[in-house]
Amino acid sequence: MKKLKELAQKKNGAGFWSGVYQALPIVLGYIPVGFAYGVLAQKSGLGLFNTVAMSVIVFAGSAQLIGAGLFGAAASPFTLILTTFVVNLRHLLMSAALAPKLRGWKKWQIALFGYELTDETFALHTMRMARRTPQKSQTFAVNITAQSSWVFGSLIGYLAGGQITDVRPVGLDFALPAMFIALLVPQVVQPVYLMMAILSGGLSVALYLLGFSQSHVIIATMVAATIGVGVEQWMKNSSS
Amino acid sequence: MDEKLVFLTICGMGVVTYLPRLLPMLLLSDRRLSPWIARWLSFVPATVLAALLAPGLLCRDGVFTLEWDNVFLLAAIPTFLVAWRFKSFFGTVATGMGLVALGRFFFS
Question: Per-domain residue ranges for chain B?
Answer without folding.
Answer: 32-107
